[in-house]
What does this fold into?
Amino acid sequence: MIRLEKFDKKFYSELINSIKNAKDLMQFGGPEFSFPLTDEQIDKTLSDENRIAFRVANISDGTTIGHCEIYFKDDSAKLGRILIMDENQRGKGIGEQMVILLLNFLLENRKERNIELNVFDFNIGAIKCYEKVGFRINPDKKLLREVDGETWTALNMVLNLE
It folds into this structure.
């Protein structure tokens, strides 16, 4: 079991140390960050009042499992920067729990009901996780990102909580 907690400075180093290369950083944070991730980059993104960042903690021992964020724009909320830090913990349903906790946070604390997220098309595990929770691929919106000479396609996924 996991819980969401406010992500603050004392957890920056755990996040920074979990991002091993530029490709991992692009997959986690998109083009806003450049490798290596730094405290200053995190400060800058979290200074945006439309963004809420969470530390994902293990309920039993309080250790950090991951990171996730919600970004608010217009009348929608965008889930992002969803990361399970320990690769050995991936594929065990934690991502699904994280997304459900984020959606519950929105239902309990916010008015936004149109939810979206972006995920790279090669991240099949994440796509399946989001589909299990109810997200559907929006065929009308894709983003292309250049990473180390490769072109990555980000799919947009949507969910309406109403």
The first helix runs from residue 12 to 18. The two ends are 26 Å apart (CA to CA). The mean pLDDT is 96. The beta strands are 2-6, 51-58, 64-73, 76-84, 114-120, 136-147, 150-160.
